[in-house]
Amino acid sequence: MSAVLLIEDDDRIRLSLAMALEDEGYTAHAVATAEEGLTAQRRYRADTVLIDLMLPGMDGYECIRQMRRDDDVPIVVVSARDDTHDIVAALEAGADDYVVKPVKVKELAARLRALRRRGRSAGQPLPGTSVQTFGDLEVRPEAGEVRLGGEPVPVTRTEFRLLCELADHPGLVLSRQQLLQRVWGHEFGDERVVDVHVGRLRQKIERETGSPRHLVTVRGLGYKLQP
């Protein structure tokens, strides 16, 4: 049974969402503050973390940053805020996904299942050749490594899977919706999630982010890895 840590300060939402997740087959541990959430995650090591942004004391952004320092657990923001700035800031802090309230529990449960599948496969070989080369960029799906100019590049689990998906289709354009489905497991979703992760990847694998040579945008269509 998968364990979910829920960090939500609204008592009504916290209780109802925890009960709904348990009805979907999850074990839910719910807390009201970011500080309690950090302590709970160190103690219980949940499989997935759901977090609101506007929390008393430490806010959700800082909680995500602190959790990311020593834990690669999938983090999903559940917030009433749907402004682009808030979504980008949460993903930049280290969140993997973003869901806008009011929450549709069936949709949320589907996203959690997708994250769990990705988590189980994170330590397993990914499809593709042992080394995929794009100039000075090397993607090694089976070793779980990315190298630039021979030096290792630290990437998150989501960034790695995004890069592997693009590397498996060298020179071919993948739309944001295709990437959402293949990397995040969403049939539908906010395409800004893809854009932010692409931007984070470029900061790590491009010599000049303003003139990317590897991870290229094809305007109006999507993204591709340039052979």
UniProtKB/TrEMBL annotation:
<dbReference type="InterPro" id="IPR001789">
    <property type="entry name" value="Sig_transdc_resp-reg_receiver"/>
</dbReference>
<protein>
    <submittedName>
        <fullName>DNA-binding response OmpR family regulator</fullName>
    </submittedName>
</protein>
<keyword id="KW-0902">Two-component regulatory system</keyword>
<feature type="DNA-binding region" description="OmpR/PhoB-type">
    <location>
        <begin position="129"/>
        <end position="227"/>
    </location>
</feature>
<feature type="domain" description="OmpR/PhoB-type">
    <location>
        <begin position="129"/>
        <end position="227"/>
    </location>
</feature>
<dbReference type="GO" id="GO:0005829">
    <property type="term" value="C:cytosol"/>
</dbReference>
<keyword id="KW-0804">Transcription</keyword>
<feature type="modified residue" description="4-aspartylphosphate">
    <location>
        <position position="52"/>
    </location>
</feature>
<dbReference type="GO" id="GO:0006355">
    <property type="term" value="P:regulation of DNA-templated transcription"/>
</dbReference>
<dbReference type="Pfam" id="PF00072">
    <property type="entry name" value="Response_reg"/>
</dbReference>
<dbReference type="InterPro" id="IPR036388">
    <property type="entry name" value="WH-like_DNA-bd_sf"/>
</dbReference>
<dbReference type="InterPro" id="IPR039420">
    <property type="entry name" value="WalR-like"/>
</dbReference>
<keyword id="KW-0597">Phosphoprotein</keyword>
<dbReference type="GO" id="GO:0000976">
    <property type="term" value="F:transcription cis-regulatory region binding"/>
</dbReference>
<dbReference type="Pfam" id="PF00486">
    <property type="entry name" value="Trans_reg_C"/>
</dbReference>
<keyword id="KW-0238">DNA-binding</keyword>
<dbReference type="GO" id="GO:0000156">
    <property type="term" value="F:phosphorelay response regulator activity"/>
</dbReference>
<dbReference type="GO" id="GO:0032993">
    <property type="term" value="C:protein-DNA complex"/>
</dbReference>
<dbReference type="InterPro" id="IPR001867">
    <property type="entry name" value="OmpR/PhoB-type_DNA-bd"/>
</dbReference>
<keyword id="KW-0805">Transcription regulation</keyword>
<feature type="domain" description="Response regulatory">
    <location>
        <begin position="3"/>
        <end position="116"/>
    </location>
</feature>
<dbReference type="InterPro" id="IPR011006">
    <property type="entry name" value="CheY-like_superfamily"/>
</dbReference>
